[in-house]
Amino acid sequence: MTVLEQGTITIHTENIFPIIKKSLYTDHEVFLRELVSNAVDAIAKLKMVARTGEYSGDISNPQITIAIDKDAKTLSVSDTGIGLTADEVKKYINQVAFSSAEEFIQKYQATDGEAIIGHFGLGFYSSFMVAKQVEIDTLSYKEGAEAVHWTCDGSPEFKLEDSARTTRGTTITLTLMDDELEYLETSRIQQLIKTYCDFMPVPIIMDGETINRHTAPWRESPNNLTKEDYLDLYRYLYPFQEEPLLWVHLNTDYPFIVNGILYFPKLRPDVDVTQGNIKLFCNQVFVSDHCEEIIPKFLMPLRGVIDSTDIPLNISRSALQTNRTVRKIADYIAKKVGDRLKELYRDNRQEYIRCWQDVGTFIKFGSLNDDKFKKQVEEILIFRSTYKPPTESGEAQTPEVQVQSEDGDVWEEVKTEKSLSTDEQGRYYTTLSEYLERNQSRHENRVFYCTDEAAQATYIELHKSQGLEVLFLDSFIDTHFISFLEREHSEVKFLRVDSELDETLIEKDKPAEIVDPKTNKTRSEQIKELFEKSLNKPRVNIRTESLKSEDTPPAMVLLPEAMRRLQDMTALLQQQKADFPEDHILLVNTAHPLIQNLANLSQGSIIQEGGSSPSEELAKMICHHVYDLALMAQKGFDAEGMKDFVERSNHVLTRLTERAM
Fold it and tell me: Any binding-site annotation on 654?
């Protein structure tokens, strides 16, 4: 073999980050990504020169081949690309970090979507992280070119010789170090290809089989993709997950290049909104599982792919956060997400409502953290409501029912008119502006809401019975979102259903109560005093009111809005669970038969030894029981509280059965 030249590799560092041999990257495994990326570039370059007419040979069936020789401890990566001449090897290999990709693009101006990866300019030299010797065997596409063989053992010394190669392209052969022999395992190489190179646009062959998908749906036009194409990509990227709710296709080449597909997943209440799930690619080359510095914070729970050549990959995370282009890309992504949500709201309201439980979290979180996004989506913020929209006849909607057919033996489903703003269960959704306008005459600029449908069911029904509409703000983000709504709508007062009762719920036109001449107190005052003495809880404020609805309970616990919020905020700052406030209101419903009977019972006249009355004692026990039931509607008991409740219940029932005998 004729030696063409011997010399010393010239290292240029003025246009790259510092090169430290064997420490180019944190993970040595990325060497394979770099070599395969270079091979893809070589094939892309050949297509470009073929289009210009400089090359008329066969460029069909491009491929990259990976081969392992365990006996020789070698790993090779071969391509059918453009190849190199001896002069190009000297220029692009011996002068480390000379950007051949950049120079090539300037000459040929890539067209028709052919992309040069380019960002991985140091890729070839990453092979020295795992190899004690690297060889290049290459033949250029140029007519009359001669094949050359380059060898380097990791020192600045190299050898450039002629080669017997007869096929166009390049083969890189690594003789692996003894502590890097894991890369001689077929399964390890397949795993690395799946991780880093799965969507590269060239088939990667190993042992006669293609081991990558080699198509990236996000680089396609949305018009060319079906619903199943989007779902197939999601299932592949996130196996064993529930189907996504909807997706956003990103595709722009000005003023920056961004492609991608972002998916809205179903969210669990314990989701970590700070944990990124989006995969970052550069020209279909996987870069990272984390895009925290590239996408807006509120979009972290989204899944999918972002692919861009305009995101600098060789700077620190802190520099990424302040990079102007990265900020513009983040704004673009947020706007595209907002546009997609508005499109769905406009074109398919019921599908939007179906997704709302999960999509609403993104919208609310985005509104809290991004003013531009807030303005974009403020008109599509919706809330589940107790409102029942009227039908064309003016009557409130009723649930779907079944009736017998004329034959009498077949049950047919009769569907009522369904509003576009209802979900499959017939539950209505409304915007805040619609709510305020609809209730302006009844309770102007006041919003009644609940945070726990089960625990606050009694309060909700009380409001519904008097025609008061209640909004459901019961997602895990709504604790913060309510305060946000109040800041945005400073003229509106938000009241939780268990904080205070609206005047329309209280009977104001009842006759004046008669004063008992013996005690000089009204019936309400006697009831209030009975509960105060029975409970002996100075921090519980006893109120007596006559409530309108016939279905209201004998007593309800109210938590004043300002006090409850202060306690919730304190618990949040201390990273603790908010305790049930000891200072609360027990509202006793004097219109309830149980309370009326209780007042009569407490006046029992039989006095036992010690000055106690059996009727009065039973009345006190019932007061405790009524209070316990009111508490149970608000919170669960701890072990001691449940024990006391069960014991009191047994005593009350025992005494009542004794009286009945």
Answer: no
